[in-house]
């Protein structure tokens, strides 16, 4: 979860004490011990990339215009968005607690959090916090470094659940940025747990993906997407699971 963005964007990222690099390293190490995820190891939770996404101006405009709009995962600092409009979801409570420790904002961040597995079985998901706490409150989702963790079928399952959590109306936006490829396909995450297989989309497969999600949820989505190269690819291009086709991709699915 882009926890850093939520804090910074909600209240200008005003820390009550001086920032210290060792503090963030210690928090990173604790989180990495819980889950060996590359984005944790590379401290991507300190990357503030939301405002650089092409879909962000539209998201911001809608949040400013209607205080009842809910934004899942991150918010916006110094941009007139109330903390009460911000929601976050993570797999373990400890990740949320570590975020509060890192940014020291327990008394300032007014966002609401839900803990649960978006990939749980149907009964567990329906009874869990993400659905029970967030259902009907979300208009915009930022799914940063989320879907690329899974294969096509699991991504499809999670995406349909994000649709289920959001309000059932036109204009809802489900957006994201993550590892993708110049050729959409399944790739083995060599060196990761159990050498798991995940699906890296290209812009064309992302359109096909959201067409399938729309059919399953009786909805229709307009998809925008683009590939790009940045420092994140530079940092990971020599990893055992990387290849020359790997890129980052932003995407935005808007409900029609």
Automatic annotation (TrEMBL):
Transmembrane segments: none
Pathway annotation from the record: Secondary metabolite biosynthesis
The keyword S-adenosyl-L-methionine belongs to this UniProt entry's keyword annotation: yes
Organism, as annotated: Penicillium cataractarum
InterPro entries the UniProt entry points to: Meroterpenoid_MTases (IPR051654), SAM-dependent_MTases_sf (IPR029063)
Superkingdom of the organism of origin: Eukaryota
Keywords: S-adenosyl-L-methionine, Transferase
Protein name as annotated: Methyltransferase type 11 domain-containing protein
Keyword S-adenosyl-L-methionine tagged: yes
Gene Ontology MF annotations: transferase activity
Family: Belongs to the class I-like SAM-binding methyltransferase superfamily.
